Amino acid sequence: MKRRDFVGLTGLAAGALWLPSVPGFGGTLVDPARLLEPGLDVAVKKRLADAALNAAKSAGATYVDVRIGRYLNQSVFTREKQVQNIASGESFGAGIRVIANGTWGFASTNQVTEAGMAKAAQLAVQIAKANAKVQKEPVKLAPQKGHGEVSWKTPIQVNAFEVPVKDKVDLLLAANAKALENGATFVNSALFQINEQKYFASTDGSYIDQDIHRIWPNFSVTAIDRASGKFRTREALSSPMGLGYEYMQPKAQDKIAGPAGTGLVGYKYSYDMLEDATLAAKQAKEKLTAKSVVPGKYDLVLDPNHLGLTIHESIGHATELDRVLGYEANYAGTSFATLEWKAKNLPYGSKNVNIIADKTQPGSLGAVGYDDEGVQTGQWDIIKDGKLVDYQKIRDQAHIVGQNKSDGCCYSQSWQDVQFQRMANISLQPGKEKMSVDDMISKVDKGIYIAGRGSFSIDQQRYNSQFGGTVFYAIEKGKIAGMIEDVAYQTNTVEFWNSCAAVCDQSDYRLFGSFFDGKGQPSQVSAVSHGSSTTRFNSVNVINTARKIG
Amino acid sequence: MAILSQSEAQGILQKVLSFSKADECEATLNGQTGGNVRSARNAISTSGGVDNVSLTVESRFGKRSGVATCNQFDDATLRNCVQRAEEIARLAPESPEYMPLLGPQKYLTSANSFAKATADITPDYRAAQVGASMKLCDEKKLTSAAFLNDAAGFVAKRNSKGLEAYQQTSGLEFSITVRTPDGTGSGYATADYNDASKFDARRLTQIAADKASGSRNAQALEPGKYTVILEPAALVANSDASLMQALMSALDARNADEGRSFLSKKGGGNRKGEKLFDERVTIYSDPLNPEIADLTFSGDGRPQQKITWIEKGVVKNLYTSRYWAQKAGIPDVPRPGGWIMEGGSQSTADLIKGTAKGILVTRLWYIRPVDPQTLLYTGLTRDGTFYIENGKIKFPVKNFRFNESPIIMLNNLEAIGKPVRVNGNLVPPLKIRDFTFTSLSDAV
Q1: Is the confidence at residue A16, as pLDDT, over 60?
Q2: Sign of the torsion angle spanned by Cα atoms A78, A175, A30, B86
């Protein structure tokens, strides 16, 4: 790229340039222009992958997969009227996973040459053989036919890396200005962009080239009352998405009006950051004087931008088969939804609860054509009419539940980390009968409407959870009756989903997203979306979180 | 090449600086070698190795700054890395928070931050330790999931103003959760060291196994306010947020001065100098403490030294960036690495003996902030929660969700035990009255 283009690309760019301490944002810091350079040609990647496959087989591996990855990221951080940090990163290398003597081994290298690949492959086999000495049962993989040479790309309209950094900075500073004009004391904003260029090859005969994009605009507005010393924040109501920069170009058809009396707007496939920042500042100020909730039982009306997190924690993680089997027992825990529990055919939720896992959903963070062990992705039922019907699986677990097929849920955050089971997009299906949010609220006598993610915590078997939110409104006799504060609800997963009384229709359906979902040891992050329409839950226990510290 | 000697590292850094054309330039080398093994269901599930050295170069023209990194060390790559940092710096906007690079600094000399025994660890050593742990669980017909992670390395820094720093470090961490086959009991143990020769996976596995066996068929108690004994691992987790780390992370001067911290004062300013905790609470950091030896310099090159954060319940110091220290006219104190909470000589067992009625907590989990104004956090007990009566553990109890603030907690202090190392800190077991449990969990 010519220097003039580079300047145009960077624009205001590159304040204090160090990588933020954000998980998954590793790699070498590069100038933004480098993010547009083409990666290795597919034919070269195939030759390098074959070098690793052959070296591992020669060393004694009975199965080998190779991931050659180029991971690009860019993050822009601002506060008030200044740029805090812009970082453009690139990470390139290869990870090689083998089965030797019936045991997994893994090694990675940034020496992506035939010699470097072969050396890493041999090391992976060596590690597998060392571990095999204390291993009792051999790894058993679900069969997987080779796909030959195939490719897949996130269907984006505008590559976010092609947008000049100046435009991104201008947008964030404009959002900050809107917040400050409308009463914010402080505002921080950020834009994260990711492009994973992944090449996968395996001894099954697959050579898969994929180009995956994700984006997340975010901000936090703080209002302070100096006299009382009270401060309150209001986070953005954006969602991270598997989209390009078109997400930052608001379109009227993507906006859904929130409940009457709140001023809230829901966003589908594009996001109006200026509009949201304006409202955020007003709502942060309003929070300073909002009434503190009276604890008790309430009917909850939960916006998709809030409910997505509840789905994520209480269904998404609970139905990952590796947790059910105990692989996460030392870290994130196990699951109440054991094989024995499922065999009893116990109700997970009411008949309104239909949950689908989908690795192909357009716009979602978890959409890929193939997973990180070469399995073509798809869609399947997790909960049908309130009953748990299936889990999320990868290849070395399917046989444990009597199945012979992976669900394509294997993922690694980078070339240098080993792939393991991660969550698919897990979504609540909308109601079949026409119902708007205002229709739903009109039938609630004493309730609370909650939008946005807040504090969240769930136990290590996914029973007991506590969720807060971004904004809370009292519902009295079918109408919104003003903002309230200090709200958190505590539930048991099964009781909560069995209290699901109604789900709005498809017209209200939106995606919530988790950009940095942590799991595993060493911990890795992955990104996943959860769709739903606004949903009602009857008689949920709400606590008041206000405390005094003297 | 992961652990370079001081002369090797400074040689590379001198070369990097010689390539610089910027007004100011600082280069930092980070090297690490190590590995990990993860197990579950009494079998190894994943393992991996780490071996890398990376260079970070920051170049500055006036108040403009650019940073680039690389991990190859031939002249051409080094020169290219410096040029890239300079290219970015020339294009960058001026930083309103610019501070000039530091000149020569005097650093403490640490004798204990690096141990050869840790640097010498091999894949066979890791497999043997985890194998011994799994064997014990097999013998007892229990199921374990564990994680062993070790690394040794160095940090070297040099800049065009004459600053020069170098230190080697090493560390090993191990944690294990043991469960009974019927799923009604679970126990946990964790430990970390600079020196791997102190590590014994089987000993830690035995602790977790005993807790798992002892926690079978837990009984339900009503949620409410209880006297609790929080074991050190419950106060500072190695895999999650934690109550004590939340408190230490809140000692930031800028947040307090800006009005968005529990340390902000009504009407403006901060609460440094106020007594906010029980007078038995004293917390300090000391990078030379032999049990938790740490880096003697911060990321931006400031010396780390012994400093008291809370003394007899009074907030004595807040950490701050160099920019904010200058702007606010306050002492320039870097954020510490590990920290030490002073305690007594009693073990957790001694604290149990002195308790008429209470609850012993092994570990807390999924700890998340609820209200930054009051530093209120929520989370749950797990992997060994027991009812104490008349100085003895009477029976296991079901897990609880708590909603509590470390500020309130450290005002309700009944007793402090002997500090032990957890996650690079020295933390005593604490006996706390009126700890707030808000609901029950059926999770084991």
Answers
A1: no
A2: negative
